[in-house]
Amino acid sequence: MTSRRDLKKDIHCLTFELISECLVYQHLHPEVKEEKINAIIEEIITHRNEYIARVNHPDGKDNPALVKKHYRAIIDDIKNKTVSLLDQLSEQ
Question: Is 33 helix (H, G, I), strand (E, B) or coil?
C-alpha cells in the first residue's frame, strides 16, 4: 500500500490531468458550451477535496485491516469517478 503522501500526490496529479483534458477538449470542440465544461471541472475539484479529506482522516486508526480497507475504498472510488467523469466529458 502506498503512503498517504504518495496517495495525495497521485490524487493531485490525476486532478491536474483531468482538468487538462477538459481544457483541451474545450479548445478542440468550440461548439461545446463553456458552462458544461466548467461544471465538469468544478465537479473534479469537489471530488479532489473530498478524497484528500478522506485520506487525511482514515477510519479505525488502531486497526490496520480497517485502514487498508478504507484506503482501498478511496482508490476504488477514484477509479470509478474518473471513468464516469471522462464518459461525461465525451458525451458533450
Answer: coil
Using CA of residue 55, residue 60, residue 61, residue 63, what is the dihedral sign?
A: negative
Query: Using one digit for the tens of pLDDT, what is the confidence trace for 43-60?
Result: 999 999 999 999 998 877
Task: State pTM to two decimals.
Answer: 0.86
DSSP state of 42: H
Residue 26 pLDDT = 93
Say how far apart CA 58 and CA 68 lie, in whole Å. Answer: 9
Q: Are 51 and 77 in contact (CB under 8 A)?
A: yes
Query: CA 14 to CA 40: how far, in whole Å?
Result: 14
